[in-house]
Design goal:
Oligomer: heterotrimer
Strand content of chain A: under 5%
CATH topology of chain A: MetI-like fold
Chains: A mainly alpha (about 290), B alpha/beta (about 280), C mainly alpha (about 300)
Distance between the termini of chain B: 31 Å
CATH class of one domain in chain B: Alpha Beta
CATH superfamily of one domain in chain B: P-loop containing nucleotide triphosphate hydrolases
Structural class of chain A: mainly alpha
CATH class of chain A: Mainly Alpha
Largest sheet of chain A: none
Number of strands of chain B: 10
Radius of gyration of chain B: 19 Å
Number of helices of chain B: 11
Largest sheet of chain B: 6 strands, mixed
Chain lengths: ~290, ~280, ~300
């Protein structure tokens, strides 16, 4: 057996291999570490700025008087409206593609379309929203126009993740339902959806968090960066958290950079909460389903 | 429907010269009558002009090597075949003399009259044992008055009642494999079908669970017409009155089970039942 | 033959209605694409009714907002190319090495932790990356490069590179994992070491998948907006110098979008012309990526 044991000193190729392995690991970890450092720097800069005044004030020419209330409330409106529009449509489209569509030209056309839309830059959606919702449909530079635009933007994400979720439901369960004399919709409603809901929910929350951080289409659409009132309905003009951050970042005075950092903390904290909620929802529901 | 695939070269099975095209058992009423049924998956033909009459209140077994079209045959009997993308068929099937593939016939209503149990036990994972039994009624929006009576009756028929009557609220997936399969039988029976199709119902089960299901089929025969697909010839011999032998999509022989196993008319049947292939 | 009612189609109106509405939802995506195309084509058409195509293609200046108007797309293309190239230069080595680690070295447990962690990079809003580029990274870089302007292509390029690493890693790993184990075993059986196997056998086999990943990353970098709008500047300039302010196509659209350009004017139409150019480039890149990705999946 001794002859098969590796020699005491590693041959150079083994050392090289070992080094390469560490290089690869480093390549995976370094960017994450960089992100960590950058975020830490933001927190250090901005955390002291977060107080009641900052959270409840409107924008101001003077950085120490400015706050995020207009942007935050605008973002809440946007997210609520976007979810209300995009989730039902996205889930419906996914159900059609997974449960109803027969293989054929129409299904292929829709599928190719959805995956291409997922790759269209967000700013193009801004141009679409500007021409279609703001001008053609005369919605003006309103929350509704913004939410419709964001809804179209996240629709492909919701469709793709819902399809994934539907695909995890075994085919045999659908057949069992159909063999009992249930219709397609009865099977979808009562067998498939209950099992797929955790996945659908997680995917939808992740899509919505994409919408929260999105600034480019809203800028093109004409979201405002200086708003001294809260929206009173979906037709109101609006600001949004990322727009506010964009505005502060672009200003030369140092005080606004601190505001931007504080705004980023609020934005990232919101995203963190949403993502945690997505994960917890999924885990809890999967436990309930005994999987 | 397809018209291209069948050529007469592959269509001259000897039985056709020996017997009339319709293989049937005279004297017994046919519950399901299959006539000249061909079926395809995409371009591949899996059934070649199969004709047979399945008698009422009897158990008919369908045997044959893997890929001979057994499953496709019974999936045509409740119109489940057409759910597979690219699946097509030709020919007709009559349930009590009515063509189930005629235009205007609702497959959903056919499936309520012709129930099915699958190879792998597939209770609905989100539902309790009780809800699984009631699934057919709930899914289809039927509301019978006494749900408890339905649950007990279906589970009694499936010989599962005594084992689960104290745990009806537990998930259906908490049962053993054999129990799950009997639960699936109970689920199929709860919608009161006339015909019960079983697609290799014991292939995922151990011998003891298999025996219980085979015993069960004997009693179910009094109320239902049963068609069972099996890859196990002994099982066919034990439970059925009629047996059909399929080979490469062709019906080679369909006759009384005893006769098929003891004095097969076709050489290929003889080779198969004596274990020369398959 | 008379059929009893029991087998005939019963009330399925609701059922058909549901299917129709689901189909409607699905068709909305087709309508969206059609609307994007219609809007871009229409506005672009009206733009070229006033500005000759030659001015768009051959002029080397882009100054539609000035009194002396020039409509040459090249400065914007150059800015886009420069920032994207820097991003790919950063993302490709890191993303690919990380993909190799995940596909060839990592145990399932490490993978389970590392993959979602890397995905975090793509989950951070681009506005936050923009802040990093302008407020954090540029001052740091200026310590080493005194020539570096406050707005430049380098810092946003690097930051954008970090952002698109997960895209290269994820698709690249798919491609590496899709290489059959038998191919690796064939190499090992010849006595090849891990390194030789990875570089001589696995990566060449996975090449089309890796190329798909890179092209997709390019498309993402070209379309990225906020990072470059914040940190690269707003000066359309035909240069490949990463140290000076430039303007990308996306940043130009943002610049006009923020101002109060009246609709229907030539200035207003320029953002759609630039948008159409951007759409064409990203669309072509996405198609190419899909084609190459399909090639490795089919094998």
């Amino acid at each position: 057996m001794n002859r098969l044991r590796p020699p005491a000193t590693r041959p150079p190729s083994r050392t090289l291999e070992h080094g390469f392995r560490w290089l690869c690991l480093l390549a995976a970890l370094l960017p994450v570490a960089v992100l960590g450092v950058l975020l830490f720097d933001v927190v250090r800069t901005g955390i002291g700025r977060i107080d009641v005044q900052f959270l409840t004030s409107f924008p101001s020419r003077r950085p120490e008087h400015a706050g995020i209330i207009a942007g935050a409330v605008g973002s809440l409106w946007l997210v609520g409206l976007t979810a209300a529009i995009a989730v039902p449509i996205g889930v419906g489209a996914a159900i059609y593609l997974e449960e109803y569509a027969r293989r054929g030209r129409l299904a292929t056309l829709i599928e190719v379309n959805v995956s291409n839309l997922a790759g269209v830059p967000s700013i193009i959606y801004g141009l679409l929203g500007l021409e279609l919702f703001v001008r053609a449909l005369s919605l003006g530079r309103s929350l509704l126009a913004g939410a419709l635009t964001l809804a179209l933007l996240v629709l492909p994400i919701i469709i793709l993740s819902t399809r994934e979720a539907l695909r995890t439901v075994p085919r045999g369960l659908r057949e069992a339902g159909l063999a009992l004399g249930a219709t397609r919709w009865q099977v979808v409603r009562q067998v498939v959806l209950p099992l797929a809901i955790p996945g659908i929910l997680t995917g939808s929350i992740l899509a919505i968090s994409r919408a929260i951080g999105e600034a480019a289409p809203l800028v093109v659409l004409g979201a405002l960066s200086y708003v001294d009132f809260l929206p009173d309905g979906p037709m109101a003009p609006f600001s949004a958290l990322p727009i506010q951050i964009f505005n502060w970042t672009s200003r030369p005075q140092a005080g606004f950079a601190v505001n931007a950092a504080a705004g980023i903390i609020v934005l990232m904290a919101t995203l963190l909460v949403l993502n945690a909620a997505a994960i917890i929802t999924r885990n809890r529901m999967q436990k309930r389903l005994g999987r | 429907m397809q018209t291209t695939v069948d050529s007469d070269a592959c269509l001259s099975p000897p039985y056709r010269t020996m017997e009339p095209a319709q293989m049937s058992n005279p004297g017994v009423a046919a519950k399901l009558s299959v006539q000249e049924l061909s079926a395809w998956h995409g371009e591949k033909q899996v059934l070649v002009r199969v004709s047979l009459d399945l008698p009422e209140h009897e158990i008919s077994a369908v045997i044959g090597p893997s890929g001979c079209g057994k499953s496709t045959l019974i999936r045509c009997l409740n119109r489940m075949h057409e759910l597979v993308p690219g699946a097509t068929h030709r020919g007709s099937i009559q349930l009590d003399g009515e063509d189930i593939y005629a235009s205007g016939v609702d497959p959903v209503l056919i499936r309520r009259r012709v129930g099915m149990v699958f190879q792998k036990p597939n209770p609905f994972p989100t539902m309790s044992i009780r809800d699984n039994v009631l699934a057919g009624l709930r899914l289809t929006g039927m509301r019978p008055g006494d749900l408890d009576a339905v649950v007990e009756s279906a589970l009694q028929q499936a010989a599962l009642w005594s084992e689960v009557k104290d745990r009806l609220r537990e998930p259906g997936t908490s049962l053993s494999g054999g129990q799950q399969q009997r639960l699936c039988i109970a689920r199929a029976l709860a919608v009161e079908p006339e015909v019960l199709l079983l697609d290799e119902p014991c292939s995922a089960l151990d011998p003891i669970a298999t025996t219980r299901i085979e015993d069960l089929l004997g009693t179910l025969r009094e109320r239902y017409t049963i068609v069972i697909v099996t890859h196990n010839m002994q099982q066919a011999a034990r439970v059925s009155q009629q047996t059909a032998f399929l080979l490469q999509g062709e019906l080679v022989e369909f006759t009384e089970t005893d006769a098929l196993f003891t004095k097969p008319k076709d050489k290929r049947t003889e080779d198969y039942v004596t274990g020369k292939f398959g | 033959m008379a059929r009893p009612a029991s087998m005939r189609r019963s009330r399925r109106v609701g059922e058909a209605l549901i299917e129709r509405s689901m189909l409607g939802c699905a068709l909305l995506s087709v309508v969206t694409t059609a609307a994007i195309l219609a809007i871009l084509v229409r506005q672009t058409g009206e733009f070229f009714a006033e500005v000759p195509i030659s001015a768009f293609l051959f002029d080397t200046q882009w100054t539609p907002l000035f009194a002396d108007k020039h409509f040459g797309i090249w400065p914007l293309l150059a800015g886009t190319f420069l920032t994207s190239a820097i991003a790919i230069a950063v993302a490709l080595p890191f993303g690919l090495l990380a993909a190799i680690y995940l596909g060839e070295f990592a145990t399932p447990r490490i993978r389970g932790v590392l993959k979602p962690t890397l995905e975090l990079l793509a989950g951070v809003p681009t506005i936050v990356y923009g802040y990093f580029a302008l407020v954090t990274l540029t001052p740091v870089l200026q310590k080493f490069m005194p020539e570096l302007s406050g707005f430049n292509a380098l810092a946003p390029g690097i930051v954008m590179g970090v952002m698109i690493i997960p895209m290269i890693t994820s698709l690249g790993e798919d491609a590496i994992s899709a290489v059959p184990g038998s191919v690796r075993e064939g190499a090992y059986a010849l006595g090849a070491g891990k390194l030789a196997t990875v570089f001589r056998v696995v990566l060449p086999t996975a090449l089309s998948g890796i190329a798909a990943a890179v092209v997709l990353a390019v498309s993402r970098a070209v379309g990225e907006t906020m990072i470059v709008a914040i940190a690269a500047g707003q000066q359309p300039r035909l240069t490949l110098n990463p140290q000076v302010p430039v303007e990308t196509m996306t940043a130009y659209i943002v610049q006009v979008g923020m101002g109060d350009t009246p609709t229907g004017t030539l200035e207003y139409r320029t953002i759609f012309v630039v948008g159409a150019t951007l759409f064409a480039i990203t669309f072509a890149a996405n198609l190419l990526s899909q084609r190459w990705a399909r090639r490795f999946r089919e094998r």
